Amino acid sequence: MQSLWNDTEAATFGNDLLGQRVYTSRLLGRNPQLVLHGGGNTSVKVTEKDFFGDSVDVCYVKGSGWDLATIEREGFSPVRMEALIKMSKLATMSDEDMVLQQRVAMTNPNAPAASIEAILHAILPFRFVDHSHANAISALTCSSDGEARVKEIYGDRVIVVPYVMPGFILAKTIADLIAGRDLRKEGIQGMVLLKHGLFTFDDDAKKSYELHIEMVTQAEEYLAKKGKPAAKAEASEDLLALAKLRRAVSLKRGFPQIARLSASPEAVGYAGISKVAEFGTRGPLTPDHSIRTKRAPAYIGDDLEASVQKFADDYAAYFNRHAKGQTMLDPAPRFAIWPGKGIVSFGDTVKDAKIVADISESTAATVQLGESAGGWEPLPEKDIFEIEYWDLEQAKLRKGPARKIHQGKVALVTGCAAGIGFAIAESLAEQGAQVVGLDIDKDIPEIMKKIGGIGIVVNLTEDQPVQDAIDFTVREFGGIDIVVSNAGIFPKNDQLDVMAQTDWDRTIMINLTSHQKLMNKVIPFVKQGLDASIIFVGSRNFKAPGPGASAYSCSKAALTQLCRVAALELAPHKIRVNIVHPDAVFDTKLWTPEALEKSAARYGMTVDEYKTKNLMKVEIKSKDIGNMVSAMAGPLFSKVTGAQIPVDGGNDRVI
User: Fold this and answer.
1) Among 164, 209, 203, 157, CA closest to 34
2) Which end of the chain has fewer surrounding CB within 10 Å, N or C?
3) Average pLDDT over residues 327-351
4) Exposure pattern of 365-388 as b/e (b: 16+ CB <10 Å)?
5) What is the DSSP string of 206-251?
6) CA 52, 55, 60: angle at the middle one, nearest 5?
7) Going by C-beta distance under 8 Å and a sequence separation of 6 or more, which residues neighbour residue 579?
8) What pLDDT is stored for residue 117 in this prediction?
9) Active site residue 389
């Protein structure tokens, strides 16, 4: 591990103490071997003037919800030292009182809530305090001889602290350990909290940070001598099995989950280690991780559903062993060890799943090292339970936004570079779906980025590119729940006796056959979807054709019949199949101002009259179709299949 300190970069953060604190906090946060996703905390003690000009001693400590990798000045909570020291001298203190009194003692009430370790930071008699959950420290101390290892490596440079509950109890424990001691004279430069993490401290920001790097490096070097190199292997891919696993986990969670498969040689190697089912499920690297990953991962055997059920049963038993009035959380795993495949991580959103993936991969590497270096022995499950069900930690999870209708679902939308297709993709994304858009337009990747989706350039009439796009979607997100088959063209108006055969063939191929090809390849995955729905985009023309539109009208009529057949075939699998029939949607690339004026003139209308020539005299926009399709994929249509929904303001010929 190398120091990342750079004098030039450091200067850009300012020469004041808080600026230096921000810089070295970010240096810690840059290294995933030290902290991950909100882990760790740092502080700096300063004397500053309050509003009235009086000098106040303040501890700026990392605020709750901030990540060290990106923290700003505003991410540090200024808490009066006097109050924190007083709290440390209390015999007992509830979590609620601690949080409240830290808030009361802040000099800026608009700052984030201070870290639960604020009292601990305050009582350490050094200006800068750095705390991480370094992987190497976990591997070093999560063993039966962890304390002996620490003393062997660091001697008297550190205080060794047995594991106790974070927060007030930990602060009180350390206050007792250092009472009456002069840590500077003793040459104390840090603390190792067994099965928890590392603290270093100094009056200089750079020295405190580089002490951290030095001590973690010493742990790494010690473990490298004791342990074995990481196992590596190649994966055998089974995307349909991945979709089945995602479905089983989602049903236990109660909501659709995004599933991220890590099939790196390291992940596959770890999953294939003999006895990984035993040592890999003993517990997390650090108790903080249990909030996101639960106490342990699932181990996936030959029977996917049975493996998920076993995890759920084991979790319920674990809860019952330790619960004291709490309500059990869902019994679904947050990540799984899957021999031959790798590590699968689950989350409500792609962001959540990626966070779990980072933690799970870091866990796998560290657990493997710890086991090979003498045995992996994390905290007992009783201690993990206390953290997992600690109200202070659960409160963080409850602060999230309300769940969206399609959150956790994966939607595949074709023909979505513009117009109706883009509006559909946008509406699904707004309601929480992870959208993958397929289009022949070369700009589709950039277009889908606008809505947080992924765009793939695909000619939907070609078999292999379509299969590749489906496989990518499942590989990336674990499955497919919503399919919107929208791709289509409107050829030039030619009557039957003058129409070019190539125009007919091309229209039928794109407007009908490409949809059939998509169904052939995507249905096996949709059968493993959650609240699965397939929606076709038809046209008013299927019921009310016009002269010169034979190819378009016939293709949309046949597409409607394809929808009806699919509804009959997929109903036993609880997959809904419906079709929406738009008409007169003019806010698309097809309808230029010139084209609108020309068409309106044919009817003897103004453009505005032409846009609203339906029975209700309303304009139909692409977003109206998008919102309808999103609704059709949601709970309002949960018991509707085989339906044909017009969105046209009322057409007398259709009615």
Assistant:
1) 209
2) C
3) 97
4) bbbbbbbbbbebbbbebebbbbbb
5) HHHHHHHHHHHHHHHHHHHHHS-PPP-------HHHHHHHHHHHHH
6) 105
7) 535, 536, 537, 538, 559, 560, 563, 643, 644, 645
8) 95
9) no
Neighbouring residues of 557: CB distance < 8 A, sequence distance ≥ 6: 541, 542, 545
Mean pLDDT of 308-327: 96
- Residue 521's Cβ-side half-sphere holds a number of Cα atoms within 13 Å equal to 22
Diameter of the chain by CA atoms? Answer: 103
The answer on pLDDT for 324 being more than 70 is yes
Separation between Cα atoms, residue 401 and residue 306, nearest integer Å? 33
- Residue-averaged pLDDT of the chain: 95
Cα-Cα-Cα-Cα torsion 107, 109, 112, 113, nearest 10 degrees, comes to 80
**C-beta separation of 256 from 407 below 8 A:** yes
pLDDT reported for residue 401? 78
Q: Which DSSP category does 509 fall into?
A: I
| pLDDT value of position 396 | 63
Q: Report d(CA 207, CA 203) in Å as an integer.
A: 8
Please tell me what DSSP assigns to residue 393.
H
Phi-psi region of 155 (alpha: psi -120 to 50; beta: other; left: phi over 0): left
- Going by C-alpha positions, the residue among 280, 264, 271, 259 that lies closest to residue 363 is 280
Per-residue pLDDT, 397: 63
pLDDT of residue 288 exceeding 90, the answer is: no
Q: How far is CA 539 from CA 475, 535, 581, 648, in A?
A: 33, 13, 4, 9
Residue 19 burial by CB count (10 A; 0-12/13-18/19+): exposed, middle or buried?
Answer: middle
Amino acid occupying residue 593: P
Task: Say which of 389, 552, 603, 610 is annotated catalytic.
Answer: 552
SS3 state of residue 60: strand
The residue behind tokens 């350039």 is 457
Q: State the Cα–Cα distance between residues 539 and 496, nearest whole angstrom.
A: 20
How far are the Cα atoms of 107, 247, 471, 551, 651 from residue 536, in angstroms, in the given order? 58, 24, 21, 18, 20
Beta-carbon contacts of residue 207 (< 8 Å; ≥ 6 apart): 128
Distance, CA of 287 to CA of 551 (rounded, Å): 64
> In whole angstroms, what is the distance from residue 98 CA to residue 119 CA?
9
d(CA 543, CA 655): 9
Tell me how crowded residue 84 is: count the other CB atoms within 10 A of its CB: 25
Q: What is the pLDDT of residue 599?
A: 86
pTM higher than the cut 0.90: yes
Taking a C-beta distance cutoff of 8 angstroms, is the pair 264, 364 a contact? no
Q: What is the pLDDT of residue 212?
A: 98
- Count Cβ atoms within 10 A of the Cβ of residue 655 and give its class: 0-12 exposed, 13-18 middle, 19 or more buried: exposed
The arithmetic mean of pLDDT across residues 303-310, rounded, is 98
**Residue 460: which of 412, 524, 411, 527 has the closest Cα?**
412
pLDDT in tens, 408-458: 999 999 999 999 999 999 999 999 999 999 999 999 999 999 999 999 999
Report the distance separating Cα 36 and Cα 248, nearest Å: 28
CA–CA distance, 38 with 55 (Å, rounded to integer): 32
